[in-house]
Automatic annotation (TrEMBL):
InterPro entries: SapC (IPR010836). Pfam families: SapC (PF07277). It comes from Sphingomonas desiccabilis. It comes from the Bacteria. This is Multidrug transporter.
Length: 238
């Protein structure tokens, strides 16, 4: 269970972060949230799908690492076998918080004290004098990028819905052991609908900066075959 706290040098000076990638460190996840500004890098490695949160009636863009809960086909021992790590994964166990009742422009760095990454070994968050370490400076930069990207994703996802550009995905994955896995509950960009948009709608998407991430999400679907191949290799070799 998460245990979030405001990060301070006084309270957390001796904490270290294990930056190895492994299931024990919390990396055994099927997917991770991604934001429009990073979709160019994401599409080089992962399929990008969209999932609707029925409770809040909104979509989230996701980089897919596997086909079932707890499956990350990019994990190989203590190595993440991809050239790009999504920001929402790279910043863990840190996150951005907002003081209760404060202006929405105010940001704080929080830390999940329940994270298995924390301990007495690994990279320092703070130096012995309490100043931020080089590692933490890099994390703060990523946190800023993720926060800005999250704000941009609100308009991006709203535009996809406004132009009816998301369609449900129905995908059956044939596996090496003879079984078939069905991926359900996700959406993809409707390419036919995108092609049918009138010039005014295309111009609106372009001016808002939404066309590039749309194209990146479409291009990323070519990675589904590679993800299936990873799944089958895992089934064959364990």
């Amino acid at each position: 269970m998460p245990d979030h706290a405001i990060l301070t040098a006084d309270a957390h000076r001796d904490l270290r972060v294990n930056t190895e990638r492994s299931a024990a460190s919390g990396d055994a996840v099927m997917s991770a949230m991604v934001v429009p500004d990073e979709l160019r890098q994401v599409q080089n490695e992962y399929p990008i799908l969209f999932r609707r949160n029925l409770e809040h009636d909104r979509f989230t863009a996701l980089a897919m690492f596997g086909f079932e809960d707890g499956e990350n086909l990019f994990l190989e021992g203590t190595r993440w076998a991809a050239r790009y790590l999504p920001l929402s994964i790279a910043i863990q166990p840190f996150l951005i918080g907002r003081p209760e009742g404060a202006d929405t422009g105010v940001r704080q760095v929080h830390i999940d004290l329940a994270s298995p990454r924390l301990g007495s070994e690994g990279l320092r968050i703070f130096e012995e004098d309490g100043s931020p370490s080089p590692y933490f400076h890099a994390v703060v930069e990523k946190l800023g990028m993720l926060d800005a990207g999250y704000q941009a994703s609100i308009g991006f996802l709203a535009a996809l819905r406004r132009h009816d550009l998301l369609e449900p995905l129905s995908l059956e994955v044939p596996l090496a052991d003879g079984s078939t896995h069905r991926l359900v509950g996700f959406h993809v960009i409707d390419e036919e609908r995108l092609r049918a948009l009138d010039p005014a709608a295309v111009a609106e998407l372009h001016q808002a900066g939404h066309l590039m991430p749309i194209f990146m999400a479409l291009a990323s679907l070519a990675n589904i075959g590679a993800l299936v191949a990873r799944k089958n290799q895992r089934l064959r070799h364990g």
